[in-house]
Amino acid sequence: MMNCQQATQLLSEKLDRPLTRKEKMAIGMHTTLCPSCRQFGKQMEELRHISKSYTKGEVPETKK
């Protein structure tokens, strides 16, 4: 079983490269059981969205 440090590392890497099937399965299992890492993954995706919008000169829509 993956620990939270490994999970957050993979969630960060997921933004830069495709994960292997094994990595996807491991992160999927971990985030199913760990609400903190699941939230971290959502926050990373939101930051990516905001960053992309900013570089394009757009005003990003924030989720409430």
From TrEMBL:
- Residue stretches making up the Putative zinc-finger domain: 4-38
**Top-level taxonomic group:** Bacteria
InterPro entries xrefs:
Znf_put
The protein in question is named Zf-HC2 domain-containing protein
Can you name the source organism? Marinomonas hwangdonensis
